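Quick check before the chapter quiz. The format below is the same one you will see on the exam, so make sure you can read both the input and the output lines.
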Amino acid sequence: MAATIGAKQALVFAEHFLQCALEDLNTWSGNVVISPASIDDQAWAQQLLTKDLLVLPQQTGNLGQRLNTLDQQLRDLGHSHILYIGSDAPALTITNFNQITDALLQDDIALAPALDGGVTIMANRVPWPDLEHLPWSTDQLGDALAALCDINQQTVTITDITYDIDHQQQLSQLGLDLLCDNRPARQMLLNQIQLFAASVAAINESPNDA
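Here is the expected output.
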């Protein structure tokens, strides 16, 4: 998104997206774990929430390897039903999370598919298979992940389609979806989207220099 709206504005939105994810974690009734990309971010992550949380920095490897390692660390600590989310899906609702937790009551794996072919929530009650060779950051990820779990004889539930935010064009749909969302961080994000849309409109309406 930075390529089209600029790094400064993209950072503003990224910070709002993070606040939305933290809002979800604050209302989560279970244990909360934050896994920053680097151990250098451990102190920063530790102060993101006022509630009790565990910070487990990601280890080396590609995303699949890091998820496998994190999953094993969590299971070694006694966790069994685990949900993974990123910080780029502010349209997620309590309904989406409830669908996932309900699915784990009967199936090994629950996935919330994204419109772009990825996933916005991935959850498991058994260890993940080897995720190293999945097509991460492509439109094939969701299908490939579900197929991999199936090949490893893990039962899979696919919940309602969701979306994350990767491009400027998705902000318009997000703004519409947040109009009736009363959660404070979402309302702050909606305000930022509206301010951004107004500034873009003003630029587009400016007369050309003669």
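If your answer matched, good. The chain has one domain: 2-30+81-205.
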